[in-house]
Amino acid sequence: MLVEHFMDNLLKEDLDLSLGECPITAPVWLSMATSPFLFGLMAWESLTETLIELGQASEEVFRGDRLPVLHLPEENHES
User: Fold this and answer.
1) What DSSP designation does 67 have?
2) Percent of the chain at pLDDT above 70?
3) pLDDT tens for residues 57-70?
4) What pLDDT is recorded for position 62?
């Protein structure tokens, strides 16, 4: 009885696959998704690193030792 039930279900699954369901299993999908995920992760890390370096370089522009000295005339207030 159990074997007949198993065989009936197995035949139904085979018929469903032949009607257009994708025969690719979960491990295959997982292996196909791994490479794009890893490349995306590496690209994200690279972008983050680049943005941090860009921020540090822009701070150098605003440091006081790199800015020109402005000689302003002194104002004498005589009261």
Assistant:
1) S
2) 65
3) 888 777 766 667 78
4) 75
**Which residues neighbour 60 within 8 Å (Cβ) at sequence distance 6 or greater?**
66
Q: What angle do CA 14, 18, 21 make, to 5 degrees?
A: 95
Assign residue 63 a region (left: φ > 0; alpha: ψ between -120 and 50; beta: otherwise): beta
CA 23, CA 18: separation in Å to the nearest integer?
9
Question: What is the distance in angstroms between the CA of the first residue and the CA of the last residue of the chain?
Answer: 114
Handedness of CA 62, 63, 65, 66 (dihedral sign): negative
Q: What Cα–Cα distance (Å) separates residue 38 from each residue in 27, 28, 33, 52, 53?
A: 16, 16, 9, 21, 23
Q: Which two tokens stand for residue 11?
A: 């035949």
- Give the three-state DSSP class for 62: coil
pTM of the complete model: 0.48
